[in-house]
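On clarity, I found the account of how folds are encoded harder to follow than it need be. What matters is that the chain and its backbone geometry are given together, residue for residue. For the editor and my fellow referees, an illustration may be useful. For illustration, here is how one protein appears when written out as sequence plus structure tokens:

___
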Amino acid sequence: MTIQEIEQTIIDEFASFDEWLDKYAYIIDLGKECPPIDPADKTDNNLIKGCQSRVWLSCQHHDGKLWFKADSDAVITKGIITLLIRALNGQTPQDILNADLAFIDQIGLKEHLSPTRSNGLTSMVKQMKLYALAFSQKQ
């Protein structure tokens, strides 16, 4: 699936909830389902700067595509990074760099987060795009 197709799936899933409390609960559930990151990847190098919570993000490059894993000490933050991973996992560095991730605004995520969590979301997206940039230059 393309990033845009995945984004549309996420938008459709969130459209099924009427209340933001239900959307938060869904994000928390996503965080609980996130596969664990290798404890060896919980390093300062993988820690995303600018997040209120501690968020570790690792990235592997296989067959021209990027594969992310993450963890956080806050379940809501882990759910947010899980959404981002879902949208960008298994995509090429160039596709990730070109992605506008419009689903974030379309589901109302940024506007329903506290300013510090919103800044953290921006930092997560930035770090994923930095990985994509780094791997795109190695090709």
